[in-house]
Amino acid sequence: MTKVLIEYDYSGIDRVVGIPTTGQLITFQKQMAKVQTSYKCNIAEARDHGWSWIMCTQAQWILKRGITAQVPVPVDPGPYVGDTNILNAAHKQVLKLYEEYEEHKRNTNKAIQACFDEDLFIELETDGLLLGVSPHEVYQHMWTNFILTVDKDREILHARELLKVDYDPDRIVQHYYKAINEARELLTGLRETVTDAEVMRNAYATFEKNIDLKDACREWNRGTLTTWEEMRKHFSKEIQMNKTDPAIMKRTELANAVLAQTKEDENAQRQASEVLVLQTQKIQELEARIEQQQLANSATNQVPGRIPASISTGSSNGSSAGGSSATSTVTKEEMMQMFAQFTQNNNQSEGNTGTAKKKKNKFGTEYIRNDLGNGERSKRRYPDSTNYCPSCGYDIKPTHTPGTCTNRKACHNEAATLANKMGGVTTNCHFVT
């Protein structure tokens, strides 16, 4: 039988120079697992994780998705001593599995030597090779001899904080579960014990802060479920039900509308503040220039309070036909009046633009006023709509129905129609009579 030969591709694994840190060791293990997972392992307990179990502790391995048992380590079956074809085939299969295991061990140790300084393994090498030492033992050797306690403690504290990550209701809950699992795997890699009770305690604390999950939290407290897996299923189901609940969807829609309006108001206030600052700066500049000109006029015995037009709105036209220079003047009071008029005109222009935009946004095309009194008008505002509301009447938005009305009156009945108003109002119903 042909001997099994395997060669790893190390191009995706980072090279570590000098003494490794806690983060670098954990990163190396993850990168190594990606390479090992790409090779199929024919041991049933390995499931879809390939040969990555070679580098894992038992606690790390059992946390992987779909894993329920440890992987039995292949052993050398020795020479074949049977006398039947069935036994011979079974022996070949066991021998092949053992040779694959030895090749993956050899490649993993080779990757470790390639990615870390060789001085780290002087105590373990024989003739420059890591012989008779498993990859996990080599990895553990680096943890024991080169990782500082303070470095490890810092990573542990960081990972503990990751367990307390908040649930974001705008994303599917699986993102939250993934973050929790990654934090748990990190702590396990740091040789820290993380119990289901601790994970569930943190998860409940973050779920309890979400108002839409109050009922789910109460139901969980009244129930008999006790495992992390059961908790995940319970809250996943409740969150999915909330996403399709009409009442919650309506509340979310209104909250988003309020948030959008608040942002719009903040932008308008910010723009008004910026305009005020600019106006103040302009006034200060004009006052400074007036004061300078008054001082210059006093020095040259000119009439106080008179300013050459080149400082403000006037202009110097150069030499006239008669050869003289024409210059007009303006007083401080006249200048302030002109500036005030300019500011007023500018504000009116901005106000008109904002009002027109608001009306256009509200009705889509042009603003149709209620010119008949009592909320009625002579021209349709929504000609494409045929909806009727017992509280608001006819000629309403296409999305406005008796069921979605938010301005309900005492006569409101969700079953009312245009043909059978059931006591509802007749506002603007003259368009169909």
The largest pleated sheet is described as: 2 strands, antiparallel
Please give the count of helices: 11
How many angstroms separate the termini? Answer: 95 Å
Mass-distribution shape: flat
Number of strands: 4
What average pLDDT do the residues reach? Answer: 82
Number of structural domains: 4
| DSSP strand content | under 5%
The poorly predicted ranges are 303-307, 312-328, 355-361
Looking at how many chains there are and whether they match, the oligomeric state comes to single chain
Order of helices and strands: HHHHHHHHHHEEHEE
**Helix- and strand-based class?**
mainly alpha
Radius of gyration (Å): 40 Å
Percent of residues in helices: 40-55%
Biggest sheet, spatial arrangement of strands: 1-2
Biased composition (Low complexity): 309-329
Region (Disordered): 296-329, 345-364
Describe the structure.
The chain has about 425 residues and is mostly helical. The chain has 4 domains: about 20-145, no CATH class; about 150-245; about 250-315 and about 325-365, no CATH class; about 370-433, no CATH class. The chain is built from 11 helices and 4 strands, in the order H-H-H-H-H-H-H-H-H-H-E-E-H-E-E. It has helices at about 20-35, 60, 85-115, 135-145, 150-160, 175-190, 195-210, 215-220, 230-245, 245-300, 330-365; strands spanning about 305-310, 330, 390, 395. The strands form 2 sheets. A two-stranded antiparallel sheet has the order 1-2. It has a two-stranded antiparallel ribbon with strand order 3-4. Helix 5 (about 150-160) packs antiparallel against helix 6. The protein is flat, with a radius of gyration of 40 Å. Mean pLDDT is about 80; it is low at about 305, about 310-330 and about 355-360.
